Amino acid sequence: MPDNRHVSVRIAAGDAILDGDLTVPDGARGTVIFAHGSGSSRLSPRNRYVAQVLQEAGLATLLMDLLTPTEERVDARSAALRFDIGFLSRRLVQATRWVLQQEQTRQLPVGYFGASTGAAAALVAAAELPGFISAVVSRGGRPDLAGQALRMVVAPTLLIVGGNDLQVLELNRSAMQLLRGPKELVVVPGASHLFEEPGALEKVAQLARDWFVRYLDRSRDDVEAA
To answer: Which DSSP string corresponds to 18-87?
Structure first.
């Protein structure tokens, strides 16, 4: 297992300051930025587990809150901000630009791991930054909420959906038809929306790891060969 450097970070995003946890393994091969879903945070056990698996594969990770504490309290009452995909994607773009300016990550290819509504934000951000985002993974995501931005996503995109999450599965199948780049939909049999069943989250983490290693390594090779 690589040695990891963990640091708590604060990221300026317009008038807001967002909290994050950046982990950079020695010899990191890429950076994965997490965009959490509805009502979640950077402390989500599910995302932190996936992040650990990615770190063990030599990938840097940024777990961050897309909302400030004040915004979280507003959203807890109204649930409005978690579905404001434009707002969340702008925050994600700003965090991406921050990552690309940091000494330890600025030379690394970048990927997004999005969950639930965070997956839509990740896809919209990937459409806005086509030259900078090398791969996207969605866990139980709502890519349909990305709307017409799906047609502008060229980054290789993996959609992971639980076999028992029937409505979200149909939404992912429809959204996948609009993606332009390399794409794949993987259904985890017997899994629900949160992948709480035994072995389900482990399967998600393995699929995400393999996708990111495949495409971030390829992007890194392209840069080094240029």
So the answer is: EEEEEEEETT---EEEEE--TT--TT-HHHHHHHHHHHHTT-EEEEE-SS-HHHHHHHHHH--GGG-HHH
pLDDT tens, 95-111? 999 999 999 999 999 99
Strands 133-139 and 157-162: parallel
Question: Domain 4-225 in CATH: superfamily?
Answer: Alpha/Beta hydrolase fold, catalytic domain (3.40.50.1820)
Residue pLDDT, tens place only, 41-56: 787 888 999 999 999 9
Structure tokens at 93: 């773009």
- Neighbour tally for 103: CB within 10 Å: 6
Full DSSP string of 96-165: HHHHTTSTTTTTS-EEEEEETHHHHHHHHHHHH-TTTEEEEEEES--GGGGGGGGGG--S-EEEEEETT-
Query: pLDDT per residue over 98-152, tens digit each?
Result: 999 999 999 999 999 999 999 999 999 999 999 999 999 999 999 999 999 999 9
